[in-house]
């Protein structure tokens, strides 16, 4: 029995695809600038120079909801980075796809960085501490050194390895497909919402530490920020989150609105998310 256990854990160790890490797309500043400024100037153009049907703006809002709420807040962050509960695999994969199309990296890359942030918040090892990098983080001026040891669980999942390995090809194919369907679908279904996601995500790394109020005396300088919470479906209750990263609910007071948690509650009531998949406190 012992031998069986040993060999099964050895197999698990071998199953980790280390090359997935070395071949991963390491996001760089040029990539982020292309998406961030491209989407920003496209939005300005459509607002000021070329009026389009409000339906296109509706598509941009819907795409932002898919990538930022279902993708980043629920799946990248609460499901995968902290394993606070589990989604059924098909939904985990679909929402991971949505999150990735927001342009802030693959699941593996984003989670490697995020787990490092939680391990060393506001120290020299923090990849995005506002004390180290300041406002240049608004334009992705933070550290993108990734550590695969932190994402060993994801390196066992072929789907996440696939997203990681073909990151740029997948993003470019999706953008091209939307463009072929309708040129405006490229701008409103992809570029503008991705620019929003990159900008708001960068802003939250700045305002989430040192700008706002604190409910808990954590060792880091994390803060709850109302503006970020409003823009990110509740992710801005960042001091609450640092105090207990195992809690899937980030808004704790009645007025700390947490739409991502409402959706998780609804999915649980509908039986989509299993009660037993939640981390026990
Ligand atoms: Zn933080
Ligand atoms: Zn976190």
Give a short summary of the structure.
With 281 residues, this protein is mainly alpha-helical. The chain is 59% helix and 0% strand.
Ligands, ions, cofactors? zinc ion
Which structural class should the secondary elements be placed in? Answer: mainly alpha
Please give the share of residues in helix. 55-70%
The coarse overall form would be globular
The number of domains is: 1
Main beta sheet strand tally, sense and closure: none
Beta-strand content estimate: under 5%
Question: How would you sum up this structure, described in words?
Answer:
By secondary structure, this protein is an all-alpha fold. It has one domain. It is built from 13 helices and no strands. It starts with a helix and ends in a 12-residue tail after the last helix. The N terminus is likely disordered. The site of one zinc ion has 7 residues, from helix 4 and helix 6.
List the helices and strands and how they pair.
Layout: H1 2-15, H2 18-22, H3 29-48, H4 54-81, H5 89-100, H6 107-119, H7 130-133, H8 158-165, H9 167-181, H10 183-207, H11 226-231, H12 238-243, H13 259-269
The structure holds zinc ion (2 copies).
One zinc ion is lined by residues 77, 81-82, 114, 118, 241, 245.
